[in-house]
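Input/output pair, single chain:
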Amino acid sequence: MHLLKYHLNKLALIAFKNRQEIIKASLGRRDLFKLGLLTGKVPVESLNPAPTVAPNTVAGEGRTRPHQALTRFPPQKLYEVHQSSHSEHRGGSMGRATVWFTAVLLGLVTLPHSAAYAAMAAMSEVVTLDTRPGVTQSFLLLEPKGSTKDVVILFPGHEGVVQFRETAKDYEVEKNGGGLTVDPRMRNTLWRNGFAVALVAPPSDRSQLAPWFRASAEHAQDVHKVIAYLRERYPGKLYLHGHCQGSLSAASVATRLKSKGISGLILSSARSSGPAGAVTDFERGAVSVRVLLVQHKDDSCPYTRPDSVGHVQAFYQNSAPKVDLITVTGGDGKVATQETCQNGFHRFKGVQRETAEAIASWLLNKEFPALVEGP
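Output:
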């Protein structure tokens, strides 16, 4: 059966067969990067032709609309894409063949946020570890370029439901709530500041992180294996960050491990009361590392009340060398669902990036704002 309408020359036919083999092998974008089949980006001094607001149809540019962000976000870096070859053996009688891959664009303008997300995507992977008999623990890991030293483990809030689905460009995080710790702006901010970032999913023996499980020895055992893996991979400091019910995970693990292998604890919209429990329910005096509390002053969740943050602060001051507080105001307080704990202020909606930057400054031992004021 002939699938091609037109007759191809020998080289084109080889390229076509190679492409079919790659598709059959289900090789993803990351696999092609590892094999050297996709190109990297090499910084250059200028682009030729230079980027313009209006479509440069004379130079062969295909777009028909003006560039909407070129003036507002001028290029910070310029890249030139080079094609590369790879000698690939697929077995059988095919032998070895040279496969070439070429990027569509000859130049790329890097914009502040969109390019950061693209670069971040190229450095992400899903790691799965054996943690208990018959149980595995997966997490999304973002690794910045260069000599990464410190790492932050993020625990999703609400029911802790996150799944990682690989797309053509990135790992997409499918979530059901989760608050600040599942917000891509939180991950991206930490990544841009040189941190490796690990977003924890439920283990393989359950679909969500129930409050009782977050406080369990099994959860601590799973996370302990994640910490051991990350400590071996990265020589620097390791921090735990939990949001809302995720604060129960971070606080429980830090308590059960007696802060071993942990350099700091970050609790945003920390649970201070309610049927799910509170961070103050765990053993007093077990956390011996510095602690950061992040609280929106208008959070209407009855279990993370702003007027209870002082109680949480006093609880950790019993043993932590320092307990800092960042108060957040402004943002978008619109309630997206009927659940009060999913309202905008509770998850810092509209001020996620500013809040994340303040947390990053705290992590880097830089001066950080005690008050983050949003619009």
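The two ends are 63 Å apart (CA to CA). Residues 82-94, 99-115 have pLDDT under 50 and may be disordered.
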